[in-house]
Amino acid sequence: MRDRMPRLEGAREYYVAPDxxxxxxxxxxxxxxxxxxxxxxxxxxxxxxxxxxxxxYVATGEERILSCRLSGTPGRPxxxxxxxxxxxxxxxxxxxxxxxxxxxxxxxxxxxxxGVEIRRxxxxxxxxxxxxxxxxxxxxxxxxxxxxxxxxxHEYYGNLLYRCGTTGADHGTYSQNTAAHTxxxxxxxxxxxxxxxxxxxxxxxxALSRLHVEGNICFCTRNGANILTxxxxxxxxxxxxxxCTYQARGTGRYPAYGVNVGYTAQGxxxxxxxxxxxxxxxxxxxxxxxxxxxTVRRNTFWSPEEVVEATWAPQATRENVCWDLNTYIANGKYxxxxxxxxxxxxxxxxxxxxxxxxxxxxYVFRRVNHYEPERVHLAVYNxxxxxxxxxxxxxxxxxxxxxxxxxxxxxxxxxxxxxxVTGKDIALPMQGHDYEPEFGAYILFREGGNTNK
Length: 453
Hints:
Blueprint: E1 13-16, H1 34-39, E2 49-52, E3 55-58, E4 65-68, E5 78-82, E6 88-91, E7 93-97, E8 101-104, E9 107-110, E10 114-120, E11 124-127, E12 130-134, E13 143-147, E14 154-157, E15 160-164, E16 171-175, E17 184-187, E18 190-192, E19 199-201, E20 209-214, E21 217-219, E22 227-231, E23 236-241, E24 244-246, E25 257-263, E26 268-274, E27 277-279, E28 283-297, E29 300-302, E30 306-312, E31 321-324, E32 327-329, H2 336-343, E33 350-352, E34 362-368, E35 375-382, E36 388-391, E37 402-407, E38 417-420, E39 426-429, E40 439-447
Parallel strand pairs: 1-2, 2-5, 3-6, 4-7, 5-8, 6-9, 7-10, 8-11, 9-12, 10-13, 11-14, 12-15, 13-16, 14-17, 15-18, 16-19, 17-20, 18-21, 19-22, 20-23, 21-24, 22-25, 23-26, 24-27, 25-28, 26-28, 27-29, 28-30, 28-31, 29-32, 32-33
Antiparallel strand pairs: 34-35, 35-40, 36-39, 37-38, 37-40
């Protein structure tokens, strides 16, 4: 199965290794060192691929900053990627001051303030990175990805962002974007167990705009919402689609909101919130300061207390607001009839029965990784607490396909299940990791067969 990494005519491939040399040729047999590749002009050209061999790369200096100034050109990005099947671990804070640059498949960890910081540049893609366990004793404002409002065509895709910091000011991502730039995409990431918020898309002065947040699996944040989009200025042109959240009690301070759209700003508009599965928090989702042009449809919500909350801006026109076709899972307290009377919303929505105030049954959230289609992202809600569940993969992997499934809490550990697809459902054990059996997040790796779906 081919991934979606561009291979361009005339492009060269270079190799770097922990014991690489600045004056080496960059072949597999004579690799370069990473600092030389990142900083020396003229070594890597637009369209080239840099393969980072397995091993540990430790940056020097008090802040362990490793500046990356590799720039491609439109249509010919420079790609820096871990060699497939190898674990390339960077104990380095990557700062990007470049354009047309893709970072792919690297592990970033250690006593770092940021995993990756984007300071300037266009066409920056962070793909399938594993950024985790960023801890500096006594420090706050630690972020897995620090992505400011500094350029066009930025995308964070398929990354694992977890255990970044320990305080409420530490987040999986801290991102901004305004109308001055093209849409910023934050898609198909696993974001969990961070000190503060999971996805923290917030701005104090800029009015946030042009944000596409889709396919993310966000769970068990420690001190804030799993997803925050908003700030002190209005947010507009937000797509929040097909994401899922989960929050277990006992994982830090139980958040007031599982998802918070708008924060304190008044006048939020042009928002599309669609197809999400939001659970947890005292309120599963809040949309605050609504002005106009808001669509909330085909979502599923559950929390143990107030399921959803909506507030209007003082200047609200209430034009073009569609809040309907949603599913609310009964918690023994929530009244859909009262909500309809209060808001005028949800004429065609429904209240689904649960069990003893909680959801029941099995829900499986699936996303095929765009850049590496052999990876399928899974979030499994096993509300009945069964020791194992059965997954139907008939549309993902034909008989004869080899597979393995890893729990993202132990991404580099042993698979929780592996074998060959036979045409029957795959048995997935849900015991042995935190949050199981009620919830688990996994990656299904598949090999062989026609699996590009």
